[in-house]
Structures are given as structure tokens and as C-alpha cells.
Amino acid sequence: MRNRYPVLDELDRKILDRYQRDTRLPAQEIGRAIGLSVAAVQRRLKRMRGTGVITAEVACVAPEAVGHPLTCIVTVDIEREKAADLERFRRRILAHARVQQCYYVTGQADFVLVVFARDMADYEDFTRQVFLADGNVKSFMTHVVLERVRVGMMTPIAAPDSTS
Fold it and tell me: Alpha-carbon distance 151 to 164, whole Å?
């Protein structure tokens, strides 16, 4: 299978490693750290944005600070798994801002979701709208998060031949 992304050289990887930790880092600081000019860093970042290597530049917000202190990990088992049924479920999930992440997975469940809520009543309302109202949801299991030990979207930046 052909990779749809461009080949990244060592300098691209060094830029990505620093940039994903803090997108506010000036290109001058990144360049100084890895031995490139400001213009070269900016060109490489622009190329990586344009080719989809960098998919977004976002702020990470503490859910508790904005009224969503409850995090639930939810596994969902779907009754019928035809393409149209799966797509319908995906669209339902995409329509809900409470769903922060959704993965179509192998194993006992079909989907794993990360859901934010104000409290248990708010989460229960969500389950009624999304799972109980969907005749194709066979079952779901909720795991309430007691502590967010590690949360992040950083991708390990390894050399192409690295196994780590």
C-alpha cells in the first residue's frame, strides 16, 4: 500500500517534534534549535500543512474549565455492520459535540468513544439520544473516568526505520 504522505527527512521530523509540543513556538526558535533559517522552517511547515502531515493546530482546553468535568469511555456494539449502517452511525456521532473521539475498532466492540458531559444526567441524556434511539445499536458499555492520567494528541516522531 502506497503512503499518501510525502517522505519526511530528519529536519522535517525535528520541526514536527518541536512544533506539535507548542505551535506558538516562533520559526526563529525552531530554526535556531535545529540549524535552519526562519524561511526554511516556514516553508517546511507550509508544505507539511498543505500535504496533510499537519492536520490541525488547536488549543487544548481543560473540560472542567468549560463545564464538562465528566469523561466517559464508551464501547458500542452495532447490530448490522453493512457499510450504510456504519456510515449512518458515524454521521450520528459526528453530530454530537460531546463526542471528543470516535474509533472504529476490531475486537468485542465496534466503536470506542470518548464522551464529555456536565454530569451523569447530561450523559444519560446523551445515551438516550445516541444509543437508545438507534435501533442498530446492540449494546454499549460505559467506563467513567476517575482521573485523566495522560491526555494528548502528540504523535511520536521516529525515524522511518525506527521500531520505537
Answer: 20
Whether residues 44 and 82 share a domain: the answer is no
Q: What is the CATH number of the domain that holds 98?
A: 3.30.70.920
Q: Are strands 99-104 and 137-144 parallel, antiparallel or unpaired?
A: unpaired
Domain that holds residue 88: 63-144
The DSSP call for residue 52 is T
CA distance 70 to 64: 8
Residues 6+ apart with CB under 8 A from 56: none
Rounded CA separation 154/164 (Å): 15
Q: What is the pLDDT of residues 118-143, one digit of tens each?
A: 999 999 999 999 999 999 999 999 99
